[in-house]
Amino acid sequence: MKIALIGYGKMGKMIHQIAEERGHEIVKIIDIDNLGDFDSDEFRSADVAIEFTAPQAAFGNYLRAWEQGVKVVSGSTGWRKDHEQEVVEACTKGGKTLFWASNFSLGVAIFSAVNRYLARIMNDFPQYAVDMTEVHHIHKLDAPSGTAITLADEITAEIDRISKVEIESIREGEVPGIHTIRYNSEADMITISHDAHNRKGFALGAVMAAEFTAQHEGLLSMGDLFKF
Predict the structure, then answer these.
(1) Is pLDDT above 80 for 96?
(2) Percent of the chain with pLDDT over 90
(3) Which of the following is catalytic: 71, 96, 136, 194?
(4) Active site (annotated) includes residue 140
(5) Is 136 designated active site?
(6) How confident is the model at residue 55 (pLDDT cuts 50, 70, 90)?
(7) C-beta atoms surrounding 209 within 10 Å
(8) d(Cα 62, Cα 190) in Å, to the nearest integer?
(9) What is the torsional sign of CA 217, 219, 220, 223?
(10) SS3 (DSSP) at 197
């Protein structure tokens, strides 16, 4: 499979390595200094572009890739507030393809399934209050993290009495990502947590998503890739 990379920071470099280990070809790398290369034969030859950039750049990158007829896999967060409806319409009515996830880790996908199941149970036990903490490296631009927001949305969708989950965001060192959810009552506390050791799980999941996206169309998510 031919892959283009949009954004070449730490995640982009790791995706590059894993994609080649899985037998794929990186046909074009686009970063801040060569945005004109969207309009190139090399970029247009890609089956999928994998995009990891800043929140303010992501939506524009989707448009540029779609203009060249290239499907997009993206892990950028923070763009949905202003552009979610436009993206949904482009993918449902406009024939474009985007696989978006706030987190591509297999472990987080499993953690998310556990989160939804536990929240479903907790809907019947009002004595438990819920809160969340997310910890990331000091370079992360958005807070709360996209993963934390997704986890919180899953909780509020399952628990009738809760309209908002309080999220504490901590930025320290080079932490890849820790998400902890607590259900606390007067009698006890139940805690579930996911602690990423490095970025490898995120990068592998992004390449797996690209492999899936090459064969599918529309607005795709981890729920399409992993049927938990």
Answers:
(1) yes
(2) 91
(3) 136
(4) yes
(5) yes
(6) confident
(7) 25
(8) 40
(9) negative
(10) coil
Q: What is the pTM for the complete model shown? A: 0.82
Please state the rounded mean pLDDT for residues 14-34. Answer: 97
Using alpha carbons only, how large is the chain's radius of gyration in Å? 18
> What is the b/e burial string over 128-167, where b = at least 16 CB atoms within 10 angstroms of the residue's CB?
bbbebbbbbeeebebebbbbbbbbbebbeebbeebeebeb
Q: Which of 140, 164, 194, 200 is catalytic?
A: 140
Distances (CA, A) of 180 to 33, 45, 143, 145: 37, 41, 15, 12
How many contiguous H segments (helices) and E segments (strands) does the chain have? 8, 10
Percent of the chain with pLDDT over 70: 100
28 contacts 4 by C-beta, under 8 angstroms: yes
Q: What pLDDT does 57 receive?
A: 95
Q: How many CB atoms lie within 10 A of CB 123?
A: 13
CA distance 99 to 120: 26
Give pLDDT, residue 185: 98
Integer Cα distance of 164 and 180 in angstroms:
16
193, 214 Cβ separation under 8 angstroms: no
